[in-house]
C-alpha cells in the first residue's frame, strides 16, 4: 500500500469532487428604501425620481446559503446577524451533503459570528462536525471570493431598491417571496453567481475550476 507521505496531492478539482461547496452570507433588508438611479421625465430636479421615505428604518437580515454545484438554496430571515442562525443553516447543509455521501465545504467571510474565535456556537459545531465539515474563510474585503455576494445584488434590486411599501410587514413578505423564488430556480441562481456548473456554461470536465480564487482556497485541502 502506498504510504500517506507518497500519495499524490489532490488537485483543487479533485478536492471539490467529493465535497458539496456552499457559500453562506447575509444581506440586510431595511424599510428605508435604497436609492438607485431611476430617471423620469415627470420628476423633479435633474430628472431624478423622488422616493418617499417611510420615516421608519426597521430592518431584518436575510441569511442565504447556496450550493455552488446544483443551485440548492437555503434562505432564512432573522432580526440580527447571529451565530445561531448561521449554525442552523450550516447544519442543514451538512445533513443534505451527508445524505449524498459528501463532505460539506463552507466558504464564509470572517464575521465574528462565523468563526470559532468569535462564537462558542460555531466552535461547538466545528468540534461536533469535524469529519463532515470544512470551513474555509475568504480574504478580507473580497466579495468575489464568495459568489453569493453577486446574488445579493439581485435581492436588493428586487426587494429594497426604490420600493414603495408603506408597511414593513409587506416588505418582509417581499423578502420571503424572493427567497422562495430563489429556492425554486436553481438554474437561474447558478447563473447569477457565475457557477461553472450553470446549465449553459457547464464545463466539459466538471472537475475543472475556472476561478483562480476558488482554486487557490481549495488547494490547501
Can you put this structure into words, describing what you see?
The protein is α/β, with parallel strands linked by helices and 221 residues long. The protein has one domain: 2-Layer Sandwich (Nucleotidyltransferase, domain 5), CATH 3.30.420.10. Helix content is 33%, strand content 17%. The chain contains seven helices and five strands; from the N terminus they run αβββαβαβαααα. The chain has a five-stranded mixed β-sheet with strand order 3-2-1-4-5, with helices on both faces. It is globular and about 50 Å long. The relative contact order is 0.19.
Number of helices: 7
Spans of at least 5 consecutive residues whose pLDDT stays below 50 are 1-15, 203-221
Q: Count the strands?
A: 5
Taking Cα atoms only, what radius of gyration do you get, to the nearest Å?
20 Å
Structural class category: alpha/beta
| CATH superfamily (homologous) name | Ribonuclease H-like superfamily/Ribonuclease H
- Widest beta sheet: strand line-up: 3-2-1-4-5
Q: What letter string, H or E per element, gives the SSE order?
A: HEEEHEHEHHHH
- Please, how many domains? 1
Assigned CATH architecture:
2-Layer Sandwich
List keywords for this structure.
disordered N terminus, disordered C terminus, 221 residues, five-stranded mixed β-sheet, globular, Nucleotidyltransferase, domain 5, alpha/beta
In summary, what is this structure?
This protein is of the alpha/beta class and 221 residues long.
SSE order and pairing:
Elements: H1 12-17, E1 19-30, E2 59-67, E3 73-78, H2 83-99, E4 103-108, H3 120-128, E5 133-137, H4 148-159, H5 168-183, H6 186-192, H7 212-218
Amino acid at each position: 500500500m502506498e504510504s500517506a507521505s507518497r500519495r499524490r496531492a489532490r488537485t483543487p478539482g479533485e478536492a471539490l469532487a467529493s465535497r458539496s461547496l456552499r457559500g453562506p452570507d447575509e444581506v440586510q433588508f431595511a424599510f428605508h428604501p435604497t436609492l438607485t438611479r431611476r430617471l423620469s421625465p415627470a420628476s423633479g430636479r435633474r430628472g431624478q425620481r423622488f422616493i418617499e421615505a417611510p420615516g421608519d428604518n426597521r430592518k431584518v437580515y436575510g441569511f442565504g446559503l447556496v450550493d455552488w454545484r446544483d443551485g440548492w438554496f437555503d434562505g432564512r430571515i432573522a432580526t440580527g446577524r447571529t451565530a445561531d442562525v448561521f449554525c442552523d443553516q450550516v447544519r442543514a447543509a451538512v445533513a443534505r451533503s451527508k445524505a449524498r455521501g459528501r463532505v460539506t465545504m463552507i466558504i464564509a467571510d470572517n464575521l465574528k459570528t462565523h468563526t470559532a474565535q468569535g462564537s462558542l456556537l460555531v466552535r461547538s459545531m466545528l468540534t461536533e462536525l469535524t469529519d463532515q465539515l470544512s470551513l474555509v474563510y475568504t480574504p478580507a474585503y473580497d466579495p468575489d471570493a464568495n459568489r453569493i455576494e453577486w446574488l445579493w445584488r439581485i435581492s436588493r434590486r428586487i426587494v429594497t431598491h426604490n420600493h414603495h411599501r408603506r408597511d414593513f410587514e409587506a416588505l418582509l413578505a417581499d423578502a420571503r417571496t424572493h427567497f422562495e423564488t430563489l429556492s425554486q430556480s436553481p438554474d437561474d441562481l447558478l447563473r447569477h453567481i457565475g457557477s461553472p456548473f450553470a446549465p449553459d456554461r457547464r464545463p466539459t470536465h466538471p472537475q475543472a475550476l475556472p476561478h483562480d480564487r476558488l482554486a487557490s482556497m481549495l488547494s490547501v485541502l
